[in-house]
Specification:
There is one protein chain. By secondary structure, this protein is α+β, with helices and mostly antiparallel strands. About 40% of the residues lie in helices and about 25% in strands. The protein contains 20 helices and 27 strands. A six-stranded antiparallel sheet has the order 2-16-15-25-26-17. Strands 5, 6, 8, 9, 12 and 13 form a six-stranded mixed sheet that branches. A six-stranded mixed β-barrel has the order 18-19-24-20-23-22. Helix 10 packs parallel to helix 12, helix 12 runs antiparallel to helix 13 and helix 13 runs antiparallel to helix 14. About 5% of the residues have low confidence.
Length: about 575
């Protein structure tokens, strides 16, 4: 979720061409189609293909973003000039606030339409794509989120009054929920839901991969971190520069309008400055078809089946009946694009055989398109069939040698297969292809480090951090650069500075504590090393690196019994630990 503060909204001129087609409605109700936007799921991220000044620019479709945004590094990558916003304007999100500027794209292409001079806010952390496509586009009319069908549609209704807008049900049952007006919801889709008896204001947010409940709202529903059955889920990231701790808790009943979901597992976290109790994320949308009637201030939806909140939740009998009566309302694809989008949805729903079948059909219809063998390769990887995945990635790169995503995946697979030279060859090619600001340089750094090419890894971390000064993943990069220097046994004072910064950002991250402990070990500060190893293992007691490292510190301090115990535990978890310690001359 992205929310602006300080200076109101910025004007935008959208000239999406309206088509004549309209869904069947009650007599007198007319609904014009403004735009039909194809959406492809990448995990739990709905991605829209657009162009910025003629260059491909995929965006995450984010109903929780009050305005469309581009991170600063991406704006520089596209050569977009930035201008200051009014004093005090900033963007709030999970992880805090971020400074913001604005840019104007001369030609923005969406759904095949060239839209001149579109404004974007420049702010926030990387999201794995060019940026976020937000409510300044989506609130142009009514919105239908048909992620199971791979489409989002914008409609302009007239004379529809209280007509039920769930047109695809053809008179069969559906669910509905009153929502606030766009103005009252601060340019978000907001309604009231019920969680274990507590009334919560919920924001429908396709940009949040997973549904999350604020800590305060979870407490009102009787759930707190530390309660029996509440599991730590690590750290979450958002627009702000800080990560936030995340837990998973089970709730007895979630009521969304007249839909009842029983025994659901939801994430809970501190949502910081975001003024909402709950973000209903993409894990809700991938199992529902949703029509947001901004005109009526009402939300219509149906449960389309499959996994919900990354698990198969118990749906009340009424909901099950709706699914049975509506059946499969997603039309069979007729072209490669449709099969590719449906296959991506099957991956999201963990139905890998059907996904692979759809990608195979897409490849047969469009044999020269590199996207579909790449998609099938990712599905094969989830099936743990790396040989088939490599074959598809080779096909992708033969069709398009500049496909950076396929090359990155192949580099990682080569590393897993014990081919570090092949990994380095792929990364060296990527190094020459990517812009200096590209977010992929962090992953390149991690892979270079895994291939023991530490100088190249440090150089990639340097590039990434120079371009991502306020990114929420900055502490991950600092830890990675610290670890690379530790393994290389060079610039240990600089490495310690990086590790200290990472630990300050997320004090409870056991990986960060483990890295700093090894720096202390290299610097012969065994007591400091022991303290950090103890802290890391208190959080995660099954870390073989930390156990073996602690055994070294204990040996130096004369704690022979403890050292022998930890060494035995470490080798029990990973038999290669003694070899690794010898390889990097850690003693």
């Amino acid at each position: 979720m992205v929310k602006g503060a300080g200076a109101g909204r910025i004007a935008i001129a959208m000239l999406l061409a309206g088509a004549a087609a309209s869904p069947a409605m009650a007599e007198g109700c007319k609904v014009g189609l403004i735009a039909a936007i194809p959406v492809t799921m990448q995990g739990l991220r709905p991605v829209v293909e657009t162009q910025i000044n003629g260059k491909p620019a995929p965006f995450v479709l984010d109903s929780g973003a009050f305005y469309s945004t581009i991170p600063p590094a991406r704006a520089r990558e596209f050569g977009l000039p930035q201008k200051a916003l009014p004093f005090g304007f900033h963007v709030n999100g999970i992880g805090g606030s971020s400074d913001a500027s604005a840019t104007t794209v001369r030609h923005f292409t969406l759904a095949g339409v060239d839209i001149p001079r579109v404004q974007f806010i420049v702010s926030g952390s990387e999201v794995g794509q060019t940026g976020l496509l937000g409510q300044n586009v989506l609130e142009l009319g009514d919105v239908e989120y048909d992620l199971p069908g791979g489409m989002v549609r914008l409609f302009r209704p007239s004379n529809c009054g209280k007509t039920a807008m769930a047109y695809w049900t053809e008179g069969k049952p559906f669910f509905e929920l009153p929502i606030e007006s766009i103005e009252a919801g601060h340019h978000h889709t907001v309604g009231t839901v019920e969680l274990d008896g507590a009334k919560l204001n919920a924001t429908f947010d396709t940009g949040a991969a997973r549904t999350v409940v604020s800590l305060r709202a979870a407490a009102r529903a009787g759930v707190h971190p530390g309660d029996p059955g509440v599991e730590s889920a690590g750290a979450g990231y958002g627009v702000g520069s800080h990560a936030v701790r995340d837990w998973i808790a089970r709730f007895k009943l979630l009521k969304i309008g007249n839909e009842e979901l029983h025994n659901v597992r939801l994430h809970i976290a501190d949502l910081g400055p975001i003024d909402t109790d709950m973000l209903l994320g993409a894990d809700f949308f991938v199992s529902h078809r949703v029509y947001v009637s901004n005109a009526q201030r009402r939300l219509y939806f149906t449960y389309t089946g499959g996994r919900l909140f990354d698990a198969v939740a118990h749906i009340d009998p009424g909901a099950a009946a709706v699914v049975a009566q509506n059946g499969d309302m997603t039309a069979t694809p007729t072209d490669a694009e449709g099969y590719g989008r449906r296959g991506a949805m099957f991956v999201t729903q963990h139905d890998l055989p059907r996904a692979i079948d759809d990608f195979t059909k897409a490849m047969a219809l469009a044999p020269k398109d590199p996207r579909f063998p790449r998609q099938r390769a990712l599905a094969y990887l989830q099936q743990r069939r790396p040989v088939l995945a490599i074959d598809d990635l080779n096909t992708t790169l033969n069709l398009d040698a500049s496909d950076s995503r396929a090359r990155m995946i192949r580099a990682e697979l080569r590393l897993r297969a014990g081919n570090p030279a092949g990994t380095i060859a792929d990364l060296d090619l990527l190094n020459g292809q990517l812009a200096r600001e590209d977010d992929a340089r962090m992953q390149m750094a991690q892979l270079y480090s895994g291939a023991d090419a530490f100088d190249a890894a440090i150089a990639q971390y340097d590039l990434w951090m120079a371009a991502h000064r306020e990114d929420s993943h900055r502490s991950t990069a600092q830890n990675g650069r610290c670890w690379s220097r530790m393994l290389a046994n060079k610039d240990l004072d600089k490495a310690l500075g990086d590790c200290n910064a990472a630990v300050r950002a997320i004090p409870g991250n056991p990986s960060f504590l483990n890295s700093r402990a090894f720096i202390h070990l290299r610097q012969k500060d065994d007591r400091a090393a022991l303290a950090d190893f103890d802290a890391a293992l208190a959080i995660d007691p099954k870390r073989p690196w930390a156990l073996y490292g602690r055994s070294l510190a204990e040996t130096h301090l004369g704690m022979t019994t403890e050292a022998a115990r930890d060494r035995t535990l470490a080798v029990g978890l990973d038999k290669r630990m003694p070899e690794r310690i010898r390889k990097y001359a850690i003693g």
